[in-house]
Amino acid sequence: MSTLRNPLLLACLGALLAGCVTNPQATGSGGASALMGTLGALGGGAAPLSLGASAPAGGGNLIELLAQSIHNIDEAKEIEIGRQLSAILLGSKPLHKDMALQAYVNRLGRWISLQSARPDLPWTFMVLDDAGFNAFAAPGGYVFVTKGLIDAAQDEAELGGVLAHEIVHVVEKHHLKSLNKTAQTALAGQLLASQAKGALGSFVASQLVSMGKELYAKGLDRGDEYEADRKGVTLAARSGLDPFGLPALLQTLSAAKPTDPGYSLVLSTHPPAEQRMAALDTAMGNRFDALAGGKPVLISARVKGSAPPATETAPSAPAKPATKPRPVKKPAA
After folding, report:
1. Which end of the chain is more exposed for a tag (fewer CB within 10 A), N or C?
2. 79 exposed, middle or buried (CB, 10 Å; 0-12, 13-18, 19+)?
């Protein structure tokens, strides 16, 4: 069976990326390669890789490198891993056809990423044509958000808060750290084959399924999610966005039911929204009050061009607004 036609692999990859994909659909290597080209075009980074591309010279067995230390994975290998995983994952959910929306999200995300500790990654932000509520990332600077989440966001600050959260996952190498733990366990139990030497495509085909199964069940560590929340709020504020955007969107998530298919995956792979809100409330205190408030900018206005581009209205040090910050609702007792 072709690797790209293996629905289990696609499902595991979705979980590996803290993903939003449900009921993965098969795709051929040609379609995945075309999607890889889109990644390169929107991202503006290095030339896209083909699905059969070999690992960089001297790359060796990446699974063994991951099992030893993530420090053995240099930036070029990290980016390649992210591209290959993203290309396969994109075969299960189409990109949204609204290119104006794609361009806006990519512009906003890249502006926020420029304020991060890793601004030189080939950051790429894409919108999936999925009514579910979720966002996720892949190593090397690849961030995905569903159309359902964008529809649920009240304004640019809420969307920006989510993008900042995902950017932190990449900056802190949370996915690589999770792979490292899984690889160590798998190698210790002799669950992985030794077929990965030389080609990253073979690495994905023969070994990532075993690692993905565990990650599908648990998602990223809860501590990683809390860290992405805390640092994401700071990153959003540094980008000139209302830092209370993410807490406000978490209020929406807190009202969702686990049985709702549009929210079931994000709820199962993240800490409860109420706990995330409480943790953020403690971490933020009143330190961000002076940076909050102001007139909300609607996403639709950005996309239609009736509002100035985000990069023109998001200074690195926003002035103190005249209005009070939006309140954060406390979870019900």
Report:
1. C
2. buried
Strand order in the sheet with 135-138: 124-128, 142-146, 135-138
Task: Count other Cβ atoms within 10 Å, centred on residue 319.
Answer: 10
Structure tokens at 301: 């206005």
Rounded distance between C-alpha atoms, residue 241 and residue 239, angstroms: 6
Query: What is the total count of domains within the chain?
Result: 1
- Any domain includes 166: yes
Task: Indicate the residue type of 115.
Answer: Q
Which amino acid is located at 173 in the chain? K
Please choose, from the candidates 57, 14, 18, 31, the residue with its C-alpha nearest in 3D space to the C-alpha of residue 266: 18
Query: How many beta carbons lie within 10 A of that of residue 270, not counting itself?
Result: 21
How many CA atoms, within 13 angstroms, populate the side-chain half-sphere of residue 278? 10
Virtual torsion, Cα 79, 165, 112, 171, nearest 10 deg: -40
**Two tokens, residue 182:** 């899984």
Is 49 a domain residue?
no
pLDDT of residue 176: 86
Domain with 231 in it: 3-44+58-308
The answer to the question of residue 313 being in a domain is no
Nearest Cα to Cα of residue 236 among 276, 282, 291: 291
The CA-atom distances, in angstroms, between 22 and each of 7, 18, 67 are 11, 12, 29
Alpha carbon 184 to its chain's center? 24
Domain membership of residue 319 (yes or no) is: no
Q: How far apart are CA 274 and CA 251, in angstroms?
A: 8
Among candidate residues 90, 91, 63, the one with its CA nearest the CA of residue 77: 63
